[in-house]
Amino acid sequence: KNSGNDILNAIMSDEDSQEIQKYQFIASKWKEAIRVILENCSQDLDLVQKKLLDQNIKKEKQTIVNWINNEELVAPKHYEEIIPKIFRLAYQEKDSQFIEKLSGDCASSIHKIYALRNEAKKILISTLSSLKTPTSMDFYLTFNDVQINFECHTVQYLANTSVDSKYLYKLSSSDKLDF
């Protein structure tokens, strides 16, 4: 089964793939900083959570674990605000210029990764939109020698429930969606 990163890397040109790897190395520095904080807290997630909260970063322990272990995760939500705080916690002995530069480089790399992913997503959507495939059929596409299998499913489910109106969205058949 292909991950989202695998699919996007397959769609990207070799040049873009190499570029994104360079940015991923820099962007992952915030995860290294989380590991440093965890190590400084003797692997105590409760203490890590408290230290983050002291920096006005309110996160559940499972979120912190996900930040460390999820290889697909590029950045936390609100990364431009959160990452400098993570670096300050992890590297308290460093001067503020070091933290600012590291934060800036990391945020810039994350932004570039998202931009490259969006370009790859546009290519995938354009390719899928141009296909005249019935929705009940499975098919595959090949990008840069990587075969990606697609399975089409119709999901139907009936449930009796009550939902607050702010959570209601208009749903439509996938063949009516305009990519």
Any overview of this molecule?
- This protein has 179 residues and is mainly alpha-helical.
- The protein has seven helices and two strands, in the order H-H-H-H-H-H-H-E-E.
- The chain has a two-stranded antiparallel sheet.
- Strand 1 and strand 2 (146-150) form a beta hairpin.
- Helix 2 packs antiparallel against helix 7, helix 3 (29-40) packs across helix 6 (79-90) and helix 6 packs antiparallel against helix 7.
- It is globular.
- The two termini are 24 Å apart.
- 18% of the residues are buried.
Write the layout of secondary structure elements.
Layout: H1 4-11, H2 14-27, H3 29-40, H4 45-54, H5 61-69, H6 79-90, H7 96-130, E1 139-143, E2 146-150
Antiparallel strand pairs: 1-2
Strand fraction equals 5-15%
Instruction: Say what oligomer this is.
Output: single chain
> How much is the average pLDDT?
83
| Number of helical stretches of at least 4 residues | 7
Residues in helices, as a percent range: 55-70%
Query: What is the overall silhouette?
Result: globular
How many angstroms separate the termini?
24 Å
Keywords, separated by commas or semicolons:
two-stranded antiparallel sheet; 7 helices; mainly alpha; single chain; 179 residues
